Amino acid sequence: MIITYMFYLLSFLAIMFGLMVVLSKNPVHSVLYLVLTFFAIAGHYVLLNAQFLAAVHIIVYAGAIMVLFLYIIMMLNLNKEAEPHKSLWIKASAAVAAGSLLVVLVASIKGTVAITPSNEFNPNIGLIENLGQTLFKDYLLPFEVSSVLLLAAMVGAVMLAKKSIK
Amino acid sequence: MSIIQTIPIEWYLFLSTVLFAIGVFGVLFRRNAIIIFMSIELMLNAVNLLLVAFSSYLSDSKGQVFVFFIMAVAAAEVAVGLAILSMVYRNTNSPDINNLNKLKW
After folding, report:
1. What digits encode the pLDDT tens for the residues B29-66?
2. Residues of A whose CB is below 8 A from B86
3. Quick one: which of A6, A130, B17, B78 has the most CB atoms within 10 Å?
4. Is the confidence at residue B104, as pLDDT, over 80?
5. Does A78 contact B95 at a Cβ distance shorter than 8 Å?
6. What 3-state DSSP class applies to B61?
7. Which CATH architecture has domain A1-80?
8. Which of B86, B89, B68 is nearest to B78 (CA)?
9. Domain residues of chain B, as ranges?
10. How far apart are CA B39 and CA A30, in angstroms?
């Protein structure tokens, strides 16, 4: 019973803070609401027996990516409500388009048949031992390729952010 | 008592769908490029949540490994995207993406 209440609470928090990210005027407030959304999603991960992934999610997203966002906002001095607003027509059409996408996706999900798990239930799959076994046995090549991706992103970010390239 | 016996997978499908739609709404609704980046992060997280939910319900750890790869790609995307954004801001003095319409027609 308490799991159901936890699910409701975390879902409510995630959706509400997600809406606040989009609707708040100040970019700094948006970043802080997005951090709260990530904490709610990390709570969902804990509910789903993915404890290690919850810790990684908080460290990477709330710890690293959001600090990068805040740093850019502070560096560019964007923490003021100077955003020119779109016309009402474009705002209404954005709301209609996103709402139509939601309706279509929900309707297509409702038409699917239920899945039946082929493996028997194992509560330990979210632990670091099992994840490491899968990562370094089945997905070794994508793991190495992602390290190349991170190196390329680092070089690209430095190249782009330099003042002038001689 | 685990969550799998308590909550059907459809609820996680609906929750992820709502979060993804909020991200799409943010991309269409705002003009500030930083908020658009944050909406893209929200969409990526909706997909991550769905991958973790299916991985847990099917007792298959491959879904959670995919979430690691999505996190790596998201980190790379944010680093490059924010570098592009700071360059745009240096050239136009505004975070408004409507300044970037030179290639429009």
Report:
1. 888 888 999 999 999 999 999 999 998 888 888 889 99
2. 72, 75-76, 160-161
3. B78
4. no
5. yes
6. coil
7. Up-down Bundle (1.20)
8. B86
9. 8-93
10. 10
Would the CB atoms of A41 and B49 count as touching at under 8 Å? yes
CATH node for B8-93: 1.10.287.3510
Q: Where are the alpha helices (DSSP H) in chain B?
A: 3-6, 9-29, 33-57, 62-92
CB-based contact B2 A121, cutoff 8 Å = yes
Residues 6+ apart with CB under 8 A from B41: A34, A61, A65, B23, B74, B78
- pLDDT band for position A79 (cuts 50, 70, 90): low
The widest CA-to-CA distance across chain A, in whole angstroms, is 64
- Identity of the amino acid at A150: L
Query: How would you class A107 by CB atoms within 10 Å of its CB: exposed for 0-12, middle for 13-18, buried for 19 or more?
Result: exposed
* Helix-helix angle A27-47:A2-23, to 10 degrees: 160
Give the length of chain B.
105
Q: Which residues of A touch B82 (CB under 8 A)?
A: 68-69, 72, 157
Q: Where are the domains of chain A?
A: 1-80, 127-166
Residue whose token pair is 């490029």: B33
Helices A140-161, A128-137: inter-axial angle, 10-degree rounding: 90
> What one-character DSSP code corresponds to residue B99?
G
Give the CA dihedral A16, A22, A24, A25, nearest 10 degrees.
180
Task: Write out the two tokens for B46.
Answer: 């909706």
Could you say which DSSP state residue B98 is in?
G
pLDDT at residue A78 above 80?
Answer: no
